[in-house]
Amino acid sequence: MTTIELTDDTFASTIKDNHIVLVDFWAAWCGPCKQFAPVFEESARNNPDIVHGKLDTEEAQRTAAAADITAIPTLMAFRDGLLVFNQAGALPAKALAEVVAMVKNLDMDEVRKDLASQGDRAAQGR
Q1: Which part of the chain is the Thioredoxin domain (predicted)?
Q2: In terms of CB atoms within 10 Å, which end of the chain has fewer, N or C?
Q3: Which residue range forms the structural domain that includes residue 55?
Q4: What amino acid positions are annotated as catalytic residues?
């Protein structure tokens, strides 16, 4: 599978409608983004069960702002609609493969439980 282009109009539905989604936030003028692109493409070919989406931060400024993108490239991983990984910087192929393995192997019941307890702690701090 190859990567898909994400836009302001398709970002949310892609995250919601797919089990695992990796998103590369990038821009055409960004040197590290250009270096990361072939690594991301290779991951897409090696992991056809995962949606690999690229979001051009210049074209999809609304989504980039909502995602609080302050540096590019930034890689985000979503599983079952939840953000489970977020890191700025171009990853080497081995590190990206480790992220993919980590996301695939997550215990989502534990993730949801952790998120709920974080919400409870935040509510108590108010």
Answers
A1: 1-105
A2: C
A3: 4-124
A4: 30, 33
